[in-house]
């Protein structure tokens, strides 16, 4: 498999530029961060997790919008765990599965930031009498008074619905609440579900949390009877030493459910690196390339003995052949500026 470009090269260039600017100005280097998907299919196909993770200071996992009015049934915006009744792809639409996929791909837990929403995804029920999880829907719920978007309600708008008589239900498997009134339904997060999310990120050793968005919390303190920014304050309190609840046993997997598991030892997939030789012919890397290059080799990165701008990535016996961005050459374990690399091939006729 030949890849002509690796996104990791671009991130490396940015990181080098940030470090250079820090040296020139005497200031702390800028942080390189990213916001990434939580859906399993995107995680598995869109990211070179192990390669890009080394360059980012932290990685914000957008673990919300996991269900919404684009679907034909009700679902929570940001469930922590799957339900025992879920299977297949549905069983992966939760925060635990998303974080485990990033960990299994090689992201250090300390760089992963758990995304928490201060809003809810809302539906119009097909039958108001059928108002639990996975109930059939007609589409998006009525737009909120202030956010004015169908299928979307801020936390303070949800508080107003609760004050007006909406019924709140806390799901003991997903560890998140939903509320219903008339033919309307919304799944969201509140102080109770946030306690479990912070307990989860502490258990996993994650770097922290991020929210979408500050202005969707009860920022003026007029709607939820808990002061200003009640959700954000609860997150900070728990993260900075507050007592978190014990996480309950995980729901029993449903039929056909395959749950990604983080790898042992903190969840990081170890990357073994074999130094490239400057001679470019055999030596420490061995092999002559081709589809069988990674046969009998440990997972890791290897120099291409025939091209200083290319390298191999071995993963589970599969061979991936990568090319550094223009102007960069492979240097032991990263694509580096050409002037930092001794490439004997440049001296060959």
Q: What is the element string, with H for helices and E for strands?
A: EHEHHEHEEEEHEEEHEHEEEEEE
Indicate the mean pLDDT. 86
- Helix content estimate: 10-25%
At the fold tier of CATH, the topology name of the domain at 31-119 and 188-239 is TIM Barrel
CATH hierarchy: architecture of the domain at 31-119 and 188-239: Alpha-Beta Barrel
**Shape, per Cα inertia axes:** elongated
Oligomer: single chain
Q: How many H/I helices?
A: 7
Query: Any idea of the CATH class of the domain at 31-119 and 188-239?
Result: Alpha Beta
Cα Rg: 24 Å
Q: Major sheet: size, sense and barrel closure?
A: 6 strands, antiparallel
The strand count comes to 17
The low-confidence parts are 1-5, 263-290
- The percentage of residues in β strands lies in 15-25%
The CATH homologous superfamily of the domain at 31-119 and 188-239 is named Glycosidases
**Distance between the first and last residues' Cα:** 28 Å
Secondary structure category: alpha/beta
InterPro entries: Chitin-bd_dom, Chitin-bd_dom_sf, Chitinase_II/V-like_cat, Chitinase_insertion_sf, GH, Glyco_hydro18_cat, Glycosyl_Hydrlase_18
Domain Chitin-binding type-2: 291-345
Catalytic activity: Random endo-hydrolysis of N-acetyl-beta-D-glucosaminide (1->4)-beta-linkages in chitin and chitodextrins
Keywords: Carbohydrate metabolism, Chitin degradation, Chitin-binding, Disulfide bond, Polysaccharide degradation
